[in-house]
Specification:
Blueprint (H helix, E strand, L loop, with lengths): L5 E4 L7 H8 L3 E4 L7 H6 L3 E3 L8 H4 L7 E4 L9 H6 L3 E4 L4 H4 L4 H14 L2 H9 L17 E5 L3 H12 L3 E5 L11 E2 L3 H7 L2 E4 L13 H6 L5 E4 L8 H10 L4 E4 L13 H8 L3 E3 L8 H22 L1
Parallel strand pairs: 1-2, 1-3, 3-4, 4-5, 6-7, 6-9, 7-8, 9-10, 10-11, 11-12
Helix pairs in contact: 1-13, 6-8
Length: about 325
Amino acid sequence: MTPRPLIRIAEPDGFSSAALEALRRTGEVQLEPVSAGGLHAALQGCDVFWFRLGHRVDAKALGDRPRCRIIACPVTGLDHIDLDACRERGVRVVSLRGEVDFLRDVRATAELTIGLALALMRQIPAAAASVRDGVWNRDAFRGNELYGKSVGIVGVGRLGSIVAGYVRAFGARPLGYDPRADFPPDLVERVPTLEALLEASELVTLHVSYGPATRHLIDRRALSRLRDGARLINTSRGGVIDEAALLEALESGRLAGAALDVLEAEPNIGKEHPLVAFARKNPRLVIVPHIGGSTYESFDKVERFLAERVAQALAESA
């Protein structure tokens, strides 16, 4: 009898019970965390390796001839996986990339974008910390409203379009830059260039895919085009921003604030990271640990969906 494929769930905390049940109908499931040092051995010891964002799978981790033939990752951004190395070794990557219809109802990252904007503009983290320290001083935390602001959306695909709808609901004016042909003019006022969008916006939020064309898209030159007092939100990928240039803009005071869900070197981020060090002392920078898609609803929905895709991939490779 042919042994059932072994499916290793490397980040099992909070894993969808419905997805787990579906995977167990397909193969043997092993729910066991994998350390950074144990990644290579894990890929040699299973047929399907399922993880979220806790690892970087590169050629070294894969080795020359890995047993693993399917990598499953329930995200759209795959910059933490060496896709060329996987292709060369015959390892199939199953993810949410390109699953446009399914993803229309996955709203977690778009909601977090608005949450970060409000946290930044209303100084919510600093105000809450002040109360925890026993200080009740409302005058120290006067903020700004989203209503009436010009909000520049860089990347008006699925998430950018959802964010535009939320922005309109707040009574703000959404502006968008994206060269795509299917730009939604009914939701967003189109701006012809990135530079023009940066100059026109009081709040800028990033929703582009990460790759060579968008690495450090927001660099020193782009930041110089922002109007004085503008704020920046990033829930896409850390590498979209030149972090050294961002730190300079924050330190100079030209950029009023930034809120980041992502950093370029994640998940290897410690308190010595320059932006983290700045955020410890200055409430104008808010950083959270890539929690954009991290909701119970989102995890359950995408893990159930991906379990079906894994079962299909295993059937096709049998």
